[in-house]
Amino acid sequence: MLTKTPEQTFFVIDFDSTFTKVEALDVLGEISLVGRPDRDDALNQIKTITDRGMAGELSFTESLELRLKLLRAHRDQLPALIETLSGKISDSFQRNKEFLVENADHIYIVSNGFREFIVPVVASLGIKADHVLANTFVYDEAGNIVDFDRTNPLSANGGKPQVIRSLQLDGEVYVIGDGYTDYEIRESGAAARFYAFTENVLRPRVVEKADFTAPSLDEFLYHNNLSRSQSYPKSRIKVLLLENVHPVAVQLFEQEGFNVEIRKGALDEDELIEAIRDVSILGIRSKTNVTARVLEHANKLMTVGAFCIGTNQIDLTACTERGVAVFNAPYSNTRSVVELAIGEIIMLIRGIVPKSNSMHRGDWDKSAKNSYEVRGKKLGLVGYGNIGTQLSVVAEALGMEVYFYDIVDKLALGNTRKCKTLDELLAVSDIISLHTDGRKENKNLIGEREFGLMKQGVIFLNLSRGHIVDIPALVNAIKQGKVIGTGVDVFPQEPKTNNEEFMSELRDLPNVILTPHIGGSTEEAQANIGNFVPAKLLEYINNGSTYGSVNFPELQLPLLKNSHRLLHIHANVPGILARMNNIFAKYHINIHGQYLKTNEQIGYVITDVAKEYADEVVQELKGIDNTIKFRLLY
Ligand SMILES: NC(=O)C1=CN([C@@H]2O[C@H](COP(=O)(O)OP(=O)(O)OC[C@H]3O[C@@H](n4cnc5c(N)ncnc54)[C@H](O)[C@@H]3O)[C@@H](O)[C@H]2O)C=CC1
Ligand SMILES: O=C(O)C(=O)COP(=O)(O)O
């Protein structure tokens, strides 16, 4: 909290790497040195000098002299610099334009950079030109930047405290910056507090000295209870991403200012219980089980993203009961699985794996025995969902006759034929491929009896879920020659990380392709998922939308404008909406919009209200019986 009133408080903000994400002179170098043979070398030198100056290892005047010499910049290059810098204003400053505009009289930019580019860049967020205290360039007659105004205290060490003192501000000064010179203002006594700003760079030596660390401007505003764009700073919201999700996902969360932790492998139940305590957003793939026991320890958890298709590893009922919305990527890796299945079918029906293995041993075994085309063969698909249907289209293009069996009555695409029973499909197919979802009831769907029904010499694939096949029965069928080619990508027990040994009775059997659950592991699929799932999670966190959720009532909400959004998740019992609306009526709340949707377990009510309302409203809404979770967005 501020120690004085906002009217008696002044905010001094650094420019380079604080107001903007970058160091302006580095960017100027990228512009001014274009086409010079020594460009890269000069740019590296400039960066090193900047860092050494920041770290207090070089006198500031010295570092400025050295950099200007290397830059060889010209006045005409400044517009391009200003344009670039305007596009690189720190995210949290952009988000909080309203605060900056409203408090312009109390905000100063104090920088060792140059007014020529700082003034136009900061003006876009309402900062006044006469509140920018910075250096100025000196040009030669041809417009080359050759020096700087050496009489300006900001061109020398200790300049910042000096210029702030000379302002004779009547109140308390809070400094926000990333560099040591910003801390020096506080050290000299010219400021009451120094916040180390770490959104763009974290300098340990500066953080160490700071009164507080501000990972974003939101955090600074929250800390001082000032008006801001985020009700709760995102830097306080922890995102835990497991199982090596694509870096683009990490980047998307970091860009939004969240506190992101990543881990390469999956976690077992106890490890996850330990890791999840303060996590609000959890990202997993197929190997991490989110059990009811885990959820008991996940008090802050708002949402889970399955960065894959399957959600059988998540206790969806328990998530719903606790008001945790779950999302997945239902289509992003479908094509990758289909391509692998087609590739394996061809490899298996030609017996390529044993042939390749014997070639590696030096054996040349040219023969057509037990080697077939796929054209005209009968492919039987168990499960005709997104993958099954797409596989049927590609297989038909290869001339295969496709049959399918699904527990749900599905439209047969192309010339595919629907089987009435699983048994019928098993009996007719030359190649059988499993593509059902991983619901519990599908455990051992294919066992001894089912293998018994298959044709002699069948090719069998499972790229869906491990527990769907009874492994000892499959091993038996392979050993007896019933199944002559097998492709398995998923297993009842899979290693948690790449460092664990894969144990299975399927090892070392003939014409068996084993793959480490990589059906969906292509660069394309992972990048697709890495974009898709965070978009869903962010829509839910930022806006409350649940479109695409696998366990929540689906609501696609309008963007929030000039309102506060109250999100109420409750057990689906009668009368809750009426109780909420009674509270709104009692406090004369002006409702801008209201949305309700329920499923069997829960109701989700979103109410957009005018910004001014009594604090008691929130308390009363939270206090309604059967409330599971309440959130406020603005
Ligand atoms: N190996 C890998 O890396 C990957 C595996 N998968 C897995 O592939 C499977 C299929 O994925 P999608 O096609 O996207 O799922 P989907 O949900 O679109 O389709 C599954 C279909 O199986 C049907 N089904 C469920 N139980 C059945 C049963 N006992 N008999 C017949 N049909 C049944 C459903 O009605 C549904 O039509 C899932 O288990 C998924 O987790 C998905 C992506 C990658
Ligand atoms: O998408 C699925 O369901 C998969 O099985 C892929 O899982 P993964 O992301 O590779 O752990």
TrEMBL record:
<protein>
    <recommendedName>
        <fullName>D-3-phosphoglycerate dehydrogenase</fullName>
        <ecNumber>1.1.1.399</ecNumber>
        <ecNumber>1.1.1.95</ecNumber>
    </recommendedName>
</protein>
<dbReference type="InterPro" id="IPR006139">
    <property type="entry name" value="D-isomer_2_OHA_DH_cat_dom"/>
</dbReference>
<dbReference type="InterPro" id="IPR029753">
    <property type="entry name" value="D-isomer_DH_CS"/>
</dbReference>
<dbReference type="InterPro" id="IPR023214">
    <property type="entry name" value="HAD_sf"/>
</dbReference>
<dbReference type="InterPro" id="IPR036412">
    <property type="entry name" value="HAD-like_sf"/>
</dbReference>
<comment type="function">
    <text>Catalyzes the reversible oxidation of 3-phospho-D-glycerate to 3-phosphonooxypyruvate, the first step of the phosphorylated L-serine biosynthesis pathway. Also catalyzes the reversible oxidation of 2-hydroxyglutarate to 2-oxoglutarate.</text>
</comment>
<dbReference type="GO" id="GO:0051287">
    <property type="term" value="F:NAD binding"/>
</dbReference>
<dbReference type="GO" id="GO:0047545">
    <property type="term" value="F:(S)-2-hydroxyglutarate dehydrogenase activity"/>
</dbReference>
<dbReference type="InterPro" id="IPR006140">
    <property type="entry name" value="D-isomer_DH_NAD-bd"/>
</dbReference>
<dbReference type="GO" id="GO:0006564">
    <property type="term" value="P:L-serine biosynthetic process"/>
</dbReference>
<keyword id="KW-0520">NAD</keyword>
<keyword id="KW-0560">Oxidoreductase</keyword>
<dbReference type="Pfam" id="PF22629">
    <property type="entry name" value="ACT_AHAS_ss"/>
</dbReference>
<dbReference type="Pfam" id="PF02826">
    <property type="entry name" value="2-Hacid_dh_C"/>
</dbReference>
<dbReference type="Pfam" id="PF12710">
    <property type="entry name" value="HAD"/>
</dbReference>
<dbReference type="InterPro" id="IPR036291">
    <property type="entry name" value="NAD(P)-bd_dom_sf"/>
</dbReference>
<dbReference type="InterPro" id="IPR050418">
    <property type="entry name" value="D-iso_2-hydroxyacid_DH_PdxB"/>
</dbReference>
<dbReference type="InterPro" id="IPR045865">
    <property type="entry name" value="ACT-like_dom_sf"/>
</dbReference>
<dbReference type="Pfam" id="PF00389">
    <property type="entry name" value="2-Hacid_dh"/>
</dbReference>
<comment type="similarity">
    <text>Belongs to the D-isomer specific 2-hydroxyacid dehydrogenase family.</text>
</comment>
<dbReference type="InterPro" id="IPR002912">
    <property type="entry name" value="ACT_dom"/>
</dbReference>
<feature type="domain" description="ACT">
    <location>
        <begin position="565"/>
        <end position="634"/>
    </location>
</feature>
<comment type="pathway">
    <text>Amino-acid biosynthesis; L-serine biosynthesis; L-serine from 3-phospho-D-glycerate: step 1/3.</text>
</comment>
<dbReference type="GO" id="GO:0004617">
    <property type="term" value="F:phosphoglycerate dehydrogenase activity"/>
</dbReference>
<dbReference type="InterPro" id="IPR054480">
    <property type="entry name" value="AHAS_small-like_ACT"/>
</dbReference>
